[in-house]
């Protein structure tokens, strides 16, 4: 990806992409750097010739980053606070089909570890090159994927499905009916397949209105960008849950102030000296204020 930073930023600006997970960056180090056009890349890599993962953010979201976890050169995550929503963005790069089983299992173990560290009430979006085919159709797997994969499932694709079931996630790409050209994420010679996926929690799938492959961009060799449109739903508190405020300003009125003193003295059992237990006293004062002065509606 060296030398591609600005090209990537221009593409994100052109396609109106706010957050992007990238893999096989091949940038050594553990940093965050501006790549131009108002975008910043958070990345991690240990070898300039292989692997490496990253997350690119539009500049306005950089200030929302609360935590960056660089687990390995195949898994990293960012936690963002957007309004009242905690959003965890995970970038993953699974081992290729020909790699040793031990290396493949290490990747899934790291991804499991990241997922288990995220509270269940927080959003999670995974953008990853899983190097596997989940396949077309969803018989027996309806709870985690739709029907619109590509071709047949392989062992690595089964690992993706198993992970989704284990973590209660949904394979977003497969829920949207598109022409095959907008489902194929990898093209090389005569090979056309789907290995790059976006996953989210099953319960948040309703927040995603579309997902497809972008055709015509050539930033990444062979791989094609998968984009989804997601609208975070902020749960507003019901009016009854909003804390009502005591109208302390009424104490400026002499008659209200005098009534408050009398009621407070009665509530304290006629004592002039306040009790030693401040918490109890404070609650008595607050309750008296609510009764005498009223609260906001």
TrEMBL record:
Pfam families with a match to the protein in the record: Exo_endo_phos
Name this polypeptide is given: Endonuclease/exonuclease/phosphatase domain-containing protein
GO molecular function: catalytic activity
SUPFAM superfamilies listed in its UniProt record: DNase I-like (SSF56219)
Domain Endonuclease/exonuclease/phosphatase stretches: 6-205
Signal peptide (residue range): none
CDD domains attached to this UniProt entry: L1-EN
InterPro entries, per database record: Endo/exonu/phosph_ase_sf (IPR036691), Endo/exonuclease/phosphatase (IPR005135), Swc5/CFDP1/2 (IPR027124)
């Amino acid at each position: 990806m060296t030398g591609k930073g600005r090209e990537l930023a221009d593409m994100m600006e052109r396609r109106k992409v706010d957050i992007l997970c990238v893999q096989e960056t091949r940038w050594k180090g553990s940093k965050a750097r501006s790549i131009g056009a108002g975008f910043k890349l958070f990345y991690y890599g240990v070898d300039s010739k292989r692997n490496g993962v990253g997350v690119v953010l539009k500049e306005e979201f950089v200030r929302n980053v609360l935590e960056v976890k660089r687990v390995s050169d195949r898994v990293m995550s960012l936690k963002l606070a957007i309004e009242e929503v905690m959003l965890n963005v995970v970038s993953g790069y699974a081992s290729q089909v020909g790699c040793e089983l031990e290396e493949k299992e290490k990747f899934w173990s790291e991804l499991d570890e990241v997922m288990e560290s995220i509270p269940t009430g927080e959003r999670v979006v995974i953008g990853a090159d899983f190097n596997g085919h989940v396949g077309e159709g969803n018989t027996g797997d309806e709870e985690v994927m739709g029907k619109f994969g590509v071709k047949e499932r392989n062992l690595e694709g089964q690992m993706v499905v198993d992970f989704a079931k284990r973590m209660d996630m949904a394979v977003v790409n497969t829920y949207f009916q598109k022409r095959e050209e907008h489902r194929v994420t990898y093209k090389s010679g005569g090979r056309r397949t789907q290995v790059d996926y976006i996953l989210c929690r099953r319960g948040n799938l309703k927040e995603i209105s579309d997902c497809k492959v972008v055709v015509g961009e050539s930033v990444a060799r062979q791989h094609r960008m998968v984009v989804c449109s997601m609208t975070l739903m902020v749960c507003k508190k019901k009016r009854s849950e909003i804390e009502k405020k005591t109208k302390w300003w009424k104490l400026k009125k002499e008659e209200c102030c005098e009534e408050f003193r009398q009621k407070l003295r009665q509530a304290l059992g006629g004592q002039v000296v306040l009790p030693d237990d401040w918490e109890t006293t404070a609650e008595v004062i607050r309750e008296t204020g609510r009764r005498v002065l009223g609260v906001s509606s």
